[in-house]
Amino acid sequence: MLIHEQSRPGRRATAQAPLTTADSSDLPTALRRKQRAALPEVSELQAVRHYTRLSQQNFSIDTNFYPLGSCTMKYNPRACNSLASLPGFLARHPAAPESHSQGIMACLYELQDMLKIVTGMHAVSLAPAAGAQGELAGVMMIRAYHDARGDHERREILVPDAAHGTNPASAIMAGFKVREAPTGSNGDVDIAALRDAVGPQTAGIMLTNPSTVGVFDRNIQAIAETVHEAGGLLYYDGANLNAILGKVRPGDMGFDVIHMNLHKTFSTPHGGGGPGAGPVGVSKRLEPYLPIPLVEQDGDSYRWLDEDDRPETIGRMTAFGGNMGILLRAYIYARMLGAEGMRRVSEFATLNANYLLKRLQEAGFQAAYPERRASHEFIITLKQEAKTYGVNAMDFAKRLLDFGYHAPTTYFPLLVPECLLIEPTETEPKEALDGFVEAMTQIRKEAEETPEKVKGAPYTLPLRRLDDVRAARQLDVAWKPASQPASQPTSQGA
Amino acid sequence: MLIHEQSRPGRRATAQAPLTTADSSDLPTALRRKQRAALPEVSELQAVRHYTRLSQQNFSIDTNFYPLGSCTMKYNPRACNSLASLPGFLARHPAAPESHSQGIMACLYELQDMLKIVTGMHAVSLAPAAGAQGELAGVMMIRAYHDARGDHERREILVPDAAHGTNPASAIMAGFKVREAPTGSNGDVDIAALRDAVGPQTAGIMLTNPSTVGVFDRNIQAIAETVHEAGGLLYYDGANLNAILGKVRPGDMGFDVIHMNLHKTFSTPHGGGGPGAGPVGVSKRLEPYLPIPLVEQDGDSYRWLDEDDRPETIGRMTAFGGNMGILLRAYIYARMLGAEGMRRVSEFATLNANYLLKRLQEAGFQAAYPERRASHEFIITLKQEAKTYGVNAMDFAKRLLDFGYHAPTTYFPLLVPECLLIEPTETEPKEALDGFVEAMTQIRKEAEETPEKVKGAPYTLPLRRLDDVRAARQLDVAWKPASQPASQPTSQGA
Amino acid sequence: MPFIPHTDDDIAGMLDAIGVERIDDLFDEIPTELRAKGLEGIPDGLSEMEVAQLLQARAREDGQALCFIGAGAYDHHIPAAVWQITTRGEFYSAYTPYQAEASQGTLQVLYEFQSMMTALTGLDVSNASLYDGASALAEAVLMAVRANRKVKNARVLMPRSVHPFYRRTVRSIVRHQGIELVEVDFDHRTGQTRVADCEAAGDEPFAALVIPQPNFFGVLEDVDALTDWAHARDALVIGVVNPVALALLSPPGDWGSEGADIACGEGQPLGMPLASGGPYLGFLCCTQAQIRQLPGRIAGKTLDADGKVGYTLTLQAREQHIRRSKATSNICTNQGLLVTAATIHMSILGAEGLERVAAACHANTSRLADSLCEINGVEPLFDAPAFHERALRLPAPAANILSDLAANDILGGFDLGREYPELDPALLVCATELRTDADIAAYREAMARALAIADAA
Amino acid sequence: MPFIPHTDDDIAGMLDAIGVERIDDLFDEIPTELRAKGLEGIPDGLSEMEVAQLLQARAREDGQALCFIGAGAYDHHIPAAVWQITTRGEFYSAYTPYQAEASQGTLQVLYEFQSMMTALTGLDVSNASLYDGASALAEAVLMAVRANRKVKNARVLMPRSVHPFYRRTVRSIVRHQGIELVEVDFDHRTGQTRVADCEAAGDEPFAALVIPQPNFFGVLEDVDALTDWAHARDALVIGVVNPVALALLSPPGDWGSEGADIACGEGQPLGMPLASGGPYLGFLCCTQAQIRQLPGRIAGKTLDADGKVGYTLTLQAREQHIRRSKATSNICTNQGLLVTAATIHMSILGAEGLERVAAACHANTSRLADSLCEINGVEPLFDAPAFHERALRLPAPAANILSDLAANDILGGFDLGREYPELDPALLVCATELRTDADIAAYREAMARALAIADAA
Ligand SMILES: Cc1ncc(COP(=O)(O)O)c(C=O)c1O
Ligand SMILES: Cc1ncc(COP(=O)(O)O)c(C=O)c1O
Q: Where's the Glycine cleavage system P-protein N-terminal domain (chains C, D) (predicted)?
């Protein structure tokens, strides 16, 4: 039941609103609202009960193993939440003067610094609000670089076919054309095809390494050389940083610009779809273009750098400098890990992925790249199962929910048919991985014996399988009052 | 699965313990632990996931209508939790000097004051940690009073047969004998029997009014007179204060001493079995005996009163003066309500109870006291249903769980056969009451048509009906390691 | 090992199963010369206790000054229930609800949020959030240009009375898509954007007009006239609105004779703490006609296999993960948790509660402005009805006054001269429902002192 | 109406259904002359916002001084996860788990808590909490007297080295049950309770001996000798223990040749904030033989109708709601939410984590004591191994020194002379793992200054 359906006119059992209605009669009538907005009228208890019960209908890290590939669903330490929510941090206005901001600025400055070190980049801006915004900032900096050199013909960005959808979309937003770079059958970028693709039109290439097919591209140096020689720059999609933290640095691989999804590698919560944070790091030649604001250390204190300090900046990505609360959480996480802890992240993420891959292979599942090491994630393809039993990747995914496991990413990357992209992360114990293998094995047995059962899943959740087609065809994206309610005049300041 | 069963030796994936083990080698070996305690070794994620999932297996106010009679399960405002948890309050050591305690002492002082006003008593102590401890303090004060007067023969406390079990148990702890006072067939105390029962041995009587049968004893003045004339004192069990808040005051009814369950009327959380707070209020003649500490206003500041200030005090009930965090929550709640809000509490609690009673009666259920008004709660008896369908009160209770309603209190008070004591509280909307009536009606229909179905309930919860007899017969009250684990020496300060 | 649950036995068993000797072997596809030698400069790990001590000290450092700055971020009371529920693990640690059956909590919240935002804005549909108000405006601009089939050029009229940071953000984001942002000046007497100012932008057609309500100065625009004027020129109208103000003000859907086409803004006033500027929540609503141009997630109602009502992400063909380079936007991760907070916040307050909050802010800000204007030399900058913020002319350099006030732990407002040199010295002030009479008196006193000092100097 | 959801329509409909005209009619069984006329003196209701402002001001008033007081309440680090989970509505707002099927969360937590407490104390069974450590000791005394079948008299030996507030509480609670509490002095050189001190209590049999470990002074008692001595006299042994200290110290179940019979104490160090003294958590464990004398709730394992494992309250025949006047105690509501916190706390820290915390407290307190004893005139009061607390002799009146320190926002310890005049002037100090070297240095400096002033005066 929607909260709106629990609403009753005149109900407002909360202690929240000011007890009296202040005078607002000076507001011109013509500009006033004529009828109250149809927001729910419920008691505080009803709201609490409603949203508490709704929350229970979610899978989440805090309740389930969640091996969603490319998403790095690992434990979000609770300390990050409580410390980022200290009153001093919550109360600070974004336009507070630097005199009242040194505490948070110290955190931000140190975070910039740590991100520089782990990525091997020359400078970092924390401004972008998520990975995709980091990408946009990144490709805009590439554009600014070429433009500043008068190199106006470089209007094409290469993007591997396996890349995340945000990569081409971001390139387009920055005014580029997108050209696909094919993935070879071994999972690495097809170098020959790449050589053919680069040219004077090449502004750059967007890669993630390990790539979204879950392998580390062994030719990365050759790729970098190829692109650089053609006059292009290399963009690193840092969504997969969890695989290499402390092991290999994008800067050392030859990348010129990188974004990081702090809501992945640095374990800030995903929140059911954000907020995230997508800081960007750059090599020296791109530094002038970094989005603002930046934090600079100035003797004993910190100060903001803005347009005045950075006249070539690509500018501001949001009104107030980014998702500060998320940056704080990432900072707290990074301080708890330290250098040693960061290295362990990638080591154990990789150990878990390779172990799980191996166990699934032993159980008869087919790896997309059986000759390769898994990075922090890997792909299995169910095309065999789909063909033999008529049970596809989506069916497996839905049936997994019945076992209490969130499904892996399905049908991404698109180039592998019936694929599951599986990322266990380092915070899951071996028992969780073993349990997952058991469930997958069981489902395959079901697919063989009673395929309809798998195709009808899920069964144990609050709802059975949902009809996506209906949702799109019979669009209903907002509750509307049955009959526009009888006009309730808003208070006229009485 | 128990958290212990998820434990693996050597697992400790938390950032919690100090990173190094400090030296403790100076502790004498003979006094040291020889073997580590068998506490679980799990990761922080495992603990978070385990307890989050466990929590989801509870019914609670925040998720369910919970009409548990005598327990006043109403909305616990979230503000009470967050404000009582302000760092300044959480950090204060109980032995902090008064100079560092004026903030909380102001709250406690005002709470004492408000409780005096709402109960009509002369003075209040916040010390008792729960209702039962308040009762103990109360009867101890009665004893101290008689003892101070040299009235050493008064060793008997009268307790109605319908009283809560804590009443007789508390009287016994204070060294009294307990004599039952019978309830008349109309729900009021049997006055004639009472008159016969009082005498020079009478120290006092423990009553709650409205009583635990859910009616207001109309003879309260006659009772008071009878007991007072016999030289006894009147104790008011304030568990039912929610029924009369702002409507009638125990002090005005003639009571000499009262405890209040702040975790009922003042909406502090029940927490799955506490903590509560059971302040006591007294008439003037009992004031010297109040348990300490008390807060006194002294000009512009507040000071503690302890044994030195109150030489006749019955003393200390806990080491540090009570459940302060709960007292703060009650204070916050009281301030949000104000006088008007308090009156509304009893009005709407009573409205809800009488409405629900009426609707249930219309649906064919039998009230225990059909001629009487319900107070904030009422009793229905299912003896008819038990006889006709073989489906008893417990079966109804269990089946209600399947409908998402917590069961009312069953088999209490004992004098009404197959009873359900139902207390909807004022914070539930009419829809919740109507839904409950529907569920009850449906269950009665099931009892008639398919009694086995009701007797087998519940079906939709994580577990079916639990075997209490087995629990008591094959006692297992603590997990023990399968084999005492191989001796793990504790660190010797290295 | 913080957060890593592997025991020595686990590690040995797992390596054995994989068939390697040590974990490092798993990285053997990385060219040796690339392997990072170390993380010099990254400090050693700290226990949670140590980090807590550090962060507590830092948070204390920033103090809790008395805040009279608004300028797009408002210090409202947030019911305690909002974040206690929002941070429940099931909301906090869930991903975007791709598996609808395992995400009904989040999905229903999104649907309810969309319902509430359409109710507030008076438009047909809402997305499920963008990063913040400024980036939402950028998306609105892009969307309007795409959506306007009648006007083929990509000119967008952007009043200077729109929040300057919003204008900068829009400029950053849309600059490479051939869009021309045409600045429209405001009337320096009233602070309003007049139709005449718009007309000064020239005769060329334009795809959209942006209308802020209230505008950055808190001044109320004549939204009806502006809307009708733009519509008469085949342009779309984008309203930039404050959702709390909408409890009292005419919703974009009611502007002019046809209503605005798009509304966007900052959701922060709906239950988000100031928190240095984020995470906040951008919202974007539009008419049914434009829904396929709307960027971002949208939750829709549907049925499950048993015919029960449920919710799922819909119209995904607009999005990057399906459409890639042809998507309406690159947005992926958005502000889901803030949407949850906003939804709970709105359901607890209801329309009447929001209305009371809005009225209290309005009254407090008026009282503050009146009180400051009692001081010699301080006077209202504009002569027009205003809401929520007030622009004041100062008799001394604003920067000095502000730093004087800050030294007394009063954040006195936003220095208008920094963004509008022609208005210097001037201050934009705001007093939400949280500012008491005593706070206002304290500000007035501190201001009087600061001005006296400035005067003496 | 805060928290009351009734609309005017609801009220009218409900009154109509009941058949009365107004709500007040429902109170017509209350004699008119008793109806309260009003609630004069109760202030008007405040909005949540206003109450928040008030409480924030009050909490600020109490500051956050640097705390070196222990004396039974310890300032430990609490993992952030503990209270974020404990305050989830399903734990926070549930009742005592009477309906087991609807309360498996709470019941399993209780069972796990009992398991952890038996592991820590080395005893067989644990209840599911009492109010606090002091009232738990009172219940332990009552229980021992009931349980001891061999000794019929009700004498209990109570060392003066037991926390003075615990002794007072025990006295209050048991005074009317014919129990004689016999005080046993301690050795003024070592601070320990010696067997010889116990023997001074006379030859009469006694039902139980209470042994604190560590004792109030932080001094470690010779628990083995005391336990064997008491057992040789047919008395039961009650250990009063600190659960964090138990991570390092021999558990009561191992004391002497047979082990203590009962252990009780304060659970506060297991995840509860200082919070002015409560709510904390009393625990009580005993041997299997005594289980039927154990007061309070006990959760037990059982099976459901399908044979699945579940948990339920058991042995309820001990309790007041079944046994009424014959119950083992009157306790009903206990400290369930704190049990939840403690259980989560222990599962996050584990035995090794608790051990490290204990060792850190021990080392910090030693460092603090050593550091203070560098100051002229400050010296250790006792010559014996100690844990967690240290008693120091001062060269000046403790009260003056403490208030001097407090003026510098340092809470310097517990004034021993108040409870033990013969020790005056002396201080009991404690530095938990949260006190840094800088904190200790700050204390030392402040103490030196305070003593210099006292000396000069
Ligand atoms: C590989 C990859 N790149 C980019 C992104 C986009 O990041 P965000 O969702 O933070 O915008 C994601 C995340 O979904 C991703 O997995
Ligand atoms: C009528 C009555 N009296 C006394 C008590 C005991 O109060 P507490 O549980 O707080 O000890 C209760 C509560 O259970 C009760 O309902």
A: 3-442
Instruction: Check if CATH label 3.90.1150.10 holds for domain B343-471.
Output: yes
Q: Count of residues for chain B?
A: 494
Dihedral angle, C-alpha B248, B249, B252, B255, nearest 10 ° = 130
B/e letters for A218-242, b = 16+ CB within 10 Å, e = fewer, are bbbebbbebbbebbbbbbbbbbbbb
Q: Which domain holds residue D360?
A: 49-78+350-456
Give the residue extent of every domain in chain A. 80-337, 343-471
Chain C contact partners (≥3 CB pairs within 8 A): A, B, D
ipTM of predicted complex: 0.97
Instruction: Give the minimum alpha-carbon distance from B92 to chain D in angstroms, rounded to a whole number.
Output: 5
Strand ranges in C16-113 using DSSP code E only, listed in sequence order: 66-67
Instruction: Measure A131 CA to ligand 1 centroid, in angstroms.
Output: 5
Could you count the other beta carbons within 10 Å of the beta carbon of residue D397? 14
Whether residue A3 contacts residue D35, with contact meaning beta carbons closer than 8 Å, is answered with: no
Q: What are phi and psi of C98, to 5 degrees?
A: -70, -35
What does the alpha-carbon distance between residue A377 and residue A371 come to, in Å, rounded to a whole number?
Answer: 14
**How far, in whole angstroms, is CA C165 from its chain's centroid?**
11
Provide the CATH number for the domain around residue D168: 3.40.640.10
Task: Determine, for residues B165 and D48 on separate chains, whether the beta-carbon distance falls below 8 Å.
Answer: no
C8/chain A closest Cα distance in angstroms: 12
- For residues D280 and D342, what is the distance between their CA atoms, to the nearest angstrom? 10
Scanning B11-101, the segments in alpha helix (DSSP H) are: 44-55, 78-84, 87-90
Reading the block at residue A309, the tokens are 């300090």
Ligand 1 pocket, residues with Cβ under 6 angstroms: A 70, 130-132, 164, 166, 208, 212, 237, 239, 261, 276, 278; C 332-333
Q: Which two tokens stand for residue B237?
A: 């069990």
CA distance C206 to chain B (A): 50
CB D262, CB D254: distance < 8 Å: no
In tens digits, chain C (457 residues) has pLDDT values of 899 999 999 999 999 999 999 999 999 999 999 997 778 999 999 999 999 999 999 999 998 899 999 999 999 999 999 999 999 999 999 999 999 999 999 999 999 999 999 999 999 999 999 999 999 999 999 999 999 999 988 999 999 999 999 999 999 999 999 999 999 999 999 999 999 999 999 999 999 999 999 999 999 999 999 999 999 999 999 999 999 999 999 999 999 999 999 999 999 999 999 999 999 999 999 999 999 999 999 999 999 999 999 999 999 888 888 888 888 899 999 999 999 999 999 999 999 999 999 999 999 999 999 999 999 999 999 999 999 899 999 999 999 999 999 999 999 999 999 999 999 999 999 999 999 999 999 999 999 999 999 888 7
Domain boundary among C325, C345, C365: C345
Q: How far apart are CA A19 and CA D377, in angstroms?
A: 60
* Interchain CB distance below 8 Å, D47 and A17: yes
Round to whole Å and give the CA distance between D428 and D164. Answer: 13
Q: Whose CA is nearest to atom 5 of ligand 2?
A: B131
Residue numbers in D near C273 (CB within 8 A) = none
**Which of B8, B18, B81 shows the shortest C-beta gap to C7?**
B8
**Chain A residues within 8 A of B48 when measuring between CB atoms:** 62, 75, 78
Cβ pair A130:C333 closer than 8 A: yes
Any ligand 2 atom below 6 A from CB of B268: no
Distance from CA of C5 to the nearest CA of B (A): 5
Residues of A in contact with D51 (CB under 8 A): 15
Q: Is there an atom of ligand 2 within 6 Å of B278 CB?
A: yes
Residue C165 falls inside a structural domain: yes
Query: Which 70-89 residues of chain D touch chain A by CB within 8 A?
Result: 79-81, 84-85, 89
In a domain, C303, yes or no: yes
